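Recap from last week: sequence in, structure out.
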Amino acid sequence: MDFGKQCRRNHFQSFEPGFIPLNHGSFGAAPKQVLEARQAILQNWQKQKDRFYFDKLDGGIDESAASISKVVNCKPENVCIVDNATTGAAIVAEKLRLDLAQGRMKDRAVILVHSVIYDAVLNTFKRFFDNLGDRVCLETVDIPFPVKSQQELLQAYEDKLKDLVGKPIVMAIVDHISSIPSIVFPLEELCKLLRTHGVEEIFVDGAHALGMVPIDLQQIDCDYYVSNAHKWLFCPNSCAFFYFRDLEKGAPGGCLHHPITSHNLNKGLKMESHWVGTRDYSPMLCVGSAINFVDKMGGLKKIMAYNHELVWRAGVYFSKSFGTRLGAPEDMVGSLCTVELPGSLIDLFEQDLDLRRHIRETSNIECFPFYTLEKGKTQKTCWIRLSSQIYNSFSDYEVLHAVLNKIIAKAT
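Predicted structure tokens:
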């Protein structure tokens, strides 16, 4: 099966003419056959809504959970379907709040986070615990960036965990693949390290992982794992899965609850997630269609290999051309690659969103430049997160490179 521009023409006709999508990581993209499947679901809903709700919805969502469980190597009963990764974070944060309220959590407990955690996930936990004083403490692991190796990242955790000896770490929130900057964490080794230091529970934000890298929940020693299906598994927005290892916690009367309370309260997390009020559930019913598309394209292994090789080639090309740094080594790159751009871009665009908007409006390219302030420096650094999906080809990155060169020339 041919990938690249031909794939874009054949399967992603929803893109506007001339558009070059190099930011798949933000919202994903669903191919034509999946969008058609979604439209058929919506039509069935419109034909007879009560019949759809009472006779089809629960079974359809359970089928989606079963399909995902095969991809991530776990049992279907350990998976529920939710909107997105942030919903999963809210489920876990509410569980911790209940633990504290019901006396299952000691005062001065530690929740371990890290410095490149996704803002929405961090804010979810902050909202629950910011007003509790020293009853709950958020401690942060400083992730080195650019990161040189998996061992360097693991050492950052080791150093922080040694500093926290004697303090009860009730939960660690870790990424499988961080968003900004994009880094593939050595997850299996990291979970083992956390357990060695007595961390009670581990929540993995795998928002970008499903469809980008292999996930084996029998090998990852975590208690909770969430990942979006609408990013790299080709589902429409929005659809994600939430995994909970302990079935009792998600059972009726358990401590896991969907953040939106509706008719299924206390019927177990899976049932609570099935119905959160009248809304569009069609994306959650498209998992099977998305996996069929993946199979049609040659399977996840082939797709992952193509995307990784393409984005790494593009990242190295940008780095060598501009004389700048890569954000991570190849074994910590999936289908997203972070590359430093010349600092003169910051002289032209004070805000990274202004640079992003300029590229979009002048060249019809969507990409993700961002600025950071590195430790020990007074001037910000400009980076770009490159995405690769099967509808991309190397010429897409060459066009973006030429656009950036024109912008840089104006600053010199």
